[in-house]
Design goal:
With 225 residues, this protein is an alpha/beta fold. It has one domain: Rossmann fold (3-Layer(aba) Sandwich). The chain is built from six helices and eleven strands.
């Protein structure tokens, strides 16, 4: 695992700085507000508002700090929607890093830190049911090597930026991601690069450019029709 250090973003929430890539794990304008906006509001909220699902199968590309996972767990409980959450992370964080993160301060429920640490500490490659509505499977796999017997209703594409990790945004990777989506499946990411939008259209997805989270002009959502 390359060297990472904790930084504080503009909304007061922590992110990590990856020294080798010279890149942060989240927007410097605010880690928590970015994740809530991109993956919850424009992802999960959009999904349940537009499609009739009795459960939601999530594929997250980049478990990272675990922020998206704990936000989704809380969202599932609040909305009483069952979620099966699969998260890919080939380079898990060390415990001394994730134990120091301050995300629990951004939840009304002050017991959330225990559940956040639980998500990090559960065994890899095994399903874990955290509560009535949220089940997680973490796997130490790269997307390029990931295989699944089931399709997904939504992909949280949270890889490092194309300028820092270009191999994650190649057309063949985008095509594989699209193949993992079920009909009416949704792809959401903070990125709004023109090449990404062209590639998503090439693999058959309907693409929307949306207003971005605070500090970012745009983001992308795409749907597999």
């Amino acid at each position: 695992m390359a060297e990472v250090k904790i930084i504080t973003t503009e909304d007061g929430s922590h992110s990590l700085y990856h020294a080798e890539l010279n890149e942060t794990y989240h927007s410097f304008h605010g880690a928590v507000q970015e994740s809530r906006y991109v993956f919850l509001k424009e992802g999960l909220d959009f999904l349940i508002a537009n499609f009739d699902l009795d459960k939601i199968r999530v594929l997250e590309v980049g478990f990272g700090t675990g922020l998206n996972a704990i936000l989704t767990s809380e969202w599932a409980t609040k909305n009483k929607v069952k979620i099966e959450y699969t998260s890919l992370e080939p380079y898990p964080l060390k415990s001394e890093v994730y134990e120091a993160l301050n995300y629990h301060e951004f939840f009304e429920d002050k017991t959330v830190k225990e559940r956040f640490l639980e998500l990090h500490n559960v065994a890899w490659e095994k399903n874990f049911q955290q509560n009535e509505f949220f089940t997680i499977l973490k796997t130490e796999a790269k997307l390029q090597n990931f295989e699944s017997s089931s399709l997904f209703d939504i992909v949280f594409f949270d890889a490092f930026a194309p300028s820092k990790q270009s191999e994650m945004w190649d057309l063949d990777v985008i095509e594989k991601t699209a193949e993992l989506l079920d009909v009416n499946g949704v792809f959401v990411t903070y990125c709004a690069k023109g090449q990404l939008k062209r590639d998503l259209k090439t693999v058959g997805l309907t693409v929307e450019t949306l207003p971005g989270p605070p500090g970012k002009k745009e983001m992308v959502r795409a749907v597999k029709r």
